[in-house]
Design goal:
By secondary structure, the protein is mainly beta. The chain has one domain: Aromatic compound dioxygenase (Protocatechuate 3,4-Dioxygenase, subunit A, Sandwich), CATH 2.60.130.10. It contains two helices and twelve strands, in the order H-H-E-E-E-E-E-E-E-E-E-E-E-E. The strands form three sheets. Strands 1, 4, 10, 11 and 12 form a five-stranded mixed β-sheet that branches. A five-stranded mixed β-sheet has the order 3-2-7-8-9, with no helix packed on it. The chain has a two-stranded antiparallel ribbon with strand order 5-6. The protein is globular, with a radius of gyration of 17 Å. The two termini are 19 Å apart. The N terminus is likely disordered. The protein binds fe (ii) ion. Fe (ii) ion binds next to strand 7.
Length: 219
């Protein structure tokens, strides 16, 4: 893996997939190219806002949720970047369009039954998944986080957290970022994970992007 690569500088299999879909072509017909671009999806920090036990749903945001609509879809793939991983458990969580997690909403922190902008879903038989949500807002790193004190106050680029688990593969925890976000370059996590930065296309419905997740084999 080349973690020092700058965002957009390289072509991962994910980008090939996306370009191929956009062009209506079959760029993956060239196995040498696909092989060259194949990398495991790198992990990132869990962060302070993970909560276990979110409901099974892929539509994270209801119609009344403030913010620009965002759809992220893709496939969970095995280490060869070809074999679909079915029934991978995908957990996603994010801030709302104002940069707040549900635990930061007054009255919600102690209500453990309420989850907002969090969900779990399974990849299908072809490894596919899709979440429908809103663009997450940026937020500052809170003060007094053990080990992260030096980063307190810096603005995090917009991101969605993922945790992907499947029994025959190595789980990965990551953050998905969006190309063009001016806060990526100075962010100590986003700047180190260019493979987890995707481009978004805009249409009348909002924005959409493709993110394939490549898991290492567990044996
Ligand atoms: Fe976060």
């Amino acid at each position: 893996m080349n973690k020092r690569q700058r965002p957009g500088a390289g072509l991962t299999r994910r980008h090939f997939l996306y370009a191929g879909a956009m062009l209506g072509g079959d760029l993956l017909a060239a196995p040498a190219l696909a092989q060259q671009a194949c990398r495991l999806t790198p992990g990132d920090i869990l962060g302070p806002y993970y909560r276990f036990g979110a409901p099974f749903l892929a539509k994270l945001a209801g119609p009344d949720e403030a913010g620009e609509r965002l759809a992220v879809s893709g496939r969970v793939l095995s280490a060869d970047c070809r074999t679909p991983v079915a029934n991978a458990l995908i957990e996603v969580w994010q801030a709302n369009s104002s940069g707040l997690y549900d635990t930061q909403t007054p009255g919600n922190f102690t209500d453990k039954g309420r989850f907002h902008l969090r969900g779990m879903l399974y990849s299908d038989a072809e490894g596919r998944y899709r979440i429908d949500t809103v663009m997450p807002g940026r937020y500052p790193v809170p003060p007094n986080l053990p080990g992260l004190e030096q980063y307190a106050g810096i603005t995090r680029p917009a991101h969605i957290h993922f945790r992907v688990i499947e029994s025959l593969h190595v789980p990965v925890t990551l953050q998905l970022y969006f190309a063009g976000d001016p806060y990526i370059a100075e962010d100590p996590w986003a700047s180190q994970h260019p493979d987890n930065v995707i481009a978004l296309e805009a249409d009348g419905q909002g924005r959409r992007g493709v993110f394939d997740i490549v898991l290492g084999r567990g044996f």
